[in-house]
Amino acid sequence: MDTLPQATSVDVALSGPSVAVLPVGSFEQHGGILPLATDTIVACAIARGIADRYDLFLLPPLTLSCSHEHGGFAGTVSISATTLFQVIRDVQSSLEQQGIRKLVLVNGHGGNYVLGNVAQEANVGERRVTLFPHRDDWDHARKAGGLVTGQHEDMHGGELETSILLAVSEESVRPGYVDADHVASERTHLQVVGMAGYTQTGLIGRPSLAEPEKGRLVLADLEASFEAHLTQLKS
Fold first, then answer.
1. Does some domain include residue 5?
2. Is 151 domain-assigned?
3. Structure pTM?
4. What is the CATH number of the domain that holds 166?
5. 99 exposed, middle or buried (CB, 10 Å; 0-12, 13-18, 19+)?
6. Measured between alpha carbons, how far is residue 143 from residues 110, 220, 221 in Å?
7. Where are the alpha helices (DSSP H) in 77-199?
């Protein structure tokens, strides 16, 4: 899957967009079966789908974010929450100079808690930013895709993420995913001990259940559910 937009400056000028879409991923471990760029690939797949369907201005992804809980694993690279916050504010400012005042943040990494604060602050006095997908959107999409696991069990590198990558970037998934399940339902101290406190492989979930059709159905459902978010943002 091509994660970079292919529009030219002339294309954007002619379309005159009022809403931009910014995929926010991460560069963090996903065990030995999925690439470090998994969350970015997921965010880009969702962002491209909604940008195409609703004629929005698709931006290139932010590929580094807040992955500090994965710091005990090789390859993970993080930036601070303060930096991520400021980068998005800078993107908003640049877009505003072109008359684009509304921004959709498509978050592919659950650890980017600061994005909620970005949206809250941006929307004081005017609707400027929406954060997508919401937990409810993911729950609905899981049902639509026929996934067996829920969000708590399927935390990282499991059925959901592996299914989406099988759907949009099959070559990125290593064959060993069928034997990589790891369940760790009790994670009370995750913010203290990190992922390494609950998994040696880096995975928490059941990737063996993944299927490309599940991924396609999940993405299709997210595209449909985004319409309500866009309506609120434009109101």
1. no
2. yes
3. 0.97
4. 3.40.50.10310
5. exposed
6. 19, 12, 9
7. 81-96, 114-122, 135-145, 159-168, 190-193
